[in-house]
Amino acid sequence: MRYPEGGGLTAERRVFREGVRLQAGQRFAAGEKAAVIAKDLRVSVRSVERWRRAWREGGMEALRSAGPANSPTVTDTQFAVLEEELGKGPPAHGFDDQRWTLARVQTVIRRRLRLTLSVPTVWRLLKRHGWSWQAPARRALERDEHAVELWKKEVWPQVKASRRRPGHGSSSRTRPDSP
Question: Which residues of 126-148 are buried (b: 16+ CB within 10 A; e: fewer)?
């Protein structure tokens, strides 16, 4: 992470940086040069030029803070709604079986909360709220041990078999039959 506080700036630091930008905006209005402003405010000339461009396009309001960059995409009230929806189970949302996958949770979030989140973001959201992936505690009652053993003996060796052809290989991709 970039900052030791756990990512992002504290509210006080954000206010401080906004103040520096606003001071620069007042100096833009006075017609001062970027190099002088940068030296006085102890920032880079490049930052001052970027702020000047924003100031030209949007005035002093463009130099104000936009708030924390890492604000959660789903609020606590929205997550409570999501938990309620997940509690209804996958069939209530049109899925065939009882499995919740990240893609399915993503679909519920898009339909119910009207938010578009990536699958990794859905995983981080669920993990942040204490959800985890689940593995079955015991084997299914429907499991046919005889069929499993038969598959291991007859099918698996064919699937596992090497793809190499018998005989000498070739290092040439364009002429595989060359010696």
Answer: beeeeeeeeeeeeeeeeeeeeee
Give yes or no for a contact between 60 and 52, defined as CB atoms under 8 angstroms apart. Answer: no
Ranking 60-64, 69-73, 141-145, 159-163 by mean pLDDT, the lowest is 69-73
Query: Rounded to an integer, what distance in angstroms lies between the CA atom of residue 105 and that of residue 131?
Result: 12
- The tokens 């399915």 sit on which residue? 104
Determine if the pTM surpasses 0.90.
no
For Cα atoms 92, 97, 98, give the angle at the middle one, nearest 5 degrees: 75
Q: How far apart are CA 132 and CA 147, in angstroms?
A: 32
Burial of 32 (0-12, 13-18, 19+ CB in 10 A): middle
CB 81 within 8 A of CB 18: no
Q: Which amino acid is at 10?
A: T
45 in Cβ contact with 53 (< 8 Å):
no
